[in-house]
Amino acid sequence: MAAWAHDVARAMSEDELLRRAGLYGIAILPEERSAPILLHGPVGAAMLRRDLGWDDEELLEAVRYHTTGRAAMTDLQLTVLLADKVEPAKVHDEQMRRVRGLAGESLPAAARLFYRWYLANNERLGRADHPRAVEAAQWLAERE
To answer: What one-character-per-residue DSSP string does 75-103 give?
Structure first.
């Protein structure tokens, strides 16, 4: 269910994501204000709870954190995050192909490799790292 619903808010405009985040009481971080697409996970989880009556916290958190991840992710959260990151349309370089291949062997190892790519890519592009992604990367590194 989490995989099916993870992108329920993905097609919303930036303005709509910001509006809905406010409506649902979601705190907006500066990184999300400058890139509102990062809100589609939290907004989607709020929609599923509020509009569809979902109450399974594990499923809702997998949707909520599939974009950035977070520290202390469950296997379901890692699975949805990685499935989202390695879908064929998003895999454009060798490191992400390695993440995709590794995901079937070890979710934590694949996630560690993904976050190394994410942090290096953001540095190369001059983009800010999302704080939850940094926390996820640190949490995973501590479990290596």
So the answer is: HHHHHHHHHHHTSGGG--SHHHHHHHHHH
